[in-house]
Amino acid sequence: SGNNFEIIIIDDGSPDGTQEIAEQLEKIYGSDKILLRPRPRKLGLGTAYIHGMKHATGNFIVIMDADLSHHPKFIPEFIRKQKEGNFDIVSGTRYKGNGGVYGWDLKRKLISRGANFITQVLLRPGASDLTGSFRLYRKEVLQKLMEKCVSKGYVFQMEMIVRARQLGYTIGEVPISFVDRVYGESKLGGNEIVSFLKGLLTLFATT
Q1: For the whole model, what pTM was predicted?
Q2: What's the angle, vertex CA 146, arms to CA 155 and CA 4, rounded to 5?
Q3: How is 128-181 classified by DSSP, letter by letter?
Q4: Burial of 53 by CB count in 10 Å (0-12 exposed, 13-18 middle, 19+ buried)?
Q5: Which of 61, 82, 63, 93 shows the shortest CA–CA distance to 177?
Q6: Which cofactor does it need (predicted)?
């Protein structure tokens, strides 16, 4: 690609063999390119970001899922978009251009669309996909946002964008295809939907 990069893998004791595969990749590509930074148990997405940032040496950080729901082929587009507009954040969007979702049932699609629609109406965030996590951040911007964000779970990604807008950071978007995982199950259930609505109302009241 012509870009200097490192891949930092944060594994929270996954039962699916993530750590073993990462160790194999580390042997193939070297520990300067593949940095495996495991944790003994699941400690949450926000703390995983902070843990990863401590080891990142670059000026920009791309956050993505390691199960290939987020395809690496979009990363060069993120980089191009960032350079084009000198953006602080470039967010992958499933809801603009040729973006889309594959492998979700109708219920999951309706929940995701509904969540985004309600959020757009209440918060006017200036981005079309608030609940996705495939994003490029300037490192110092990500650090600042992590200091400000208080949400957990499904609301966390949304708060990152809302706080970014509040702090005056610029946001670009790249259409992406999201492919649902082949193995494992979604964690989205009734409790997550209730906590999402609570978080949304909290953001509405405080931003």
Answers
A1: 0.85
A2: 110
A3: S-SS---EEEEHHHHHHHHHH----GGGHHHHHHHHHHHTT--EEEEE-EEE--
A4: middle
A5: 93
A6: Mg(2+); Mn(2+); Ca(2+)
What are the two backbone dihedrals, phi and then psi, of residue 54, each rounded to the nearest 5 degrees? Answer: -60, -30
Q: Contact, 92 vs 126, CB < 8 A?
A: no
The pLDDT of residue 190 is 64
Over the range 12-32, which residues count as b (16 or more CB within 10 Å of their CB) and which as e?
bebeeebeeebeeebeeeeee
Closest C-alpha to 129, from 88, 87, 101: 101
Per-block mean pLDDT, blocks of 10 residues, the chain (207 long): 87 80 92 87 79 91 88 95 98 91 82 82 85 93 91 81 93 92 54 76 80
For the chain, domains (ranges, CATH) are 1-58 (no CATH), 60-206 (3.90.550.10)
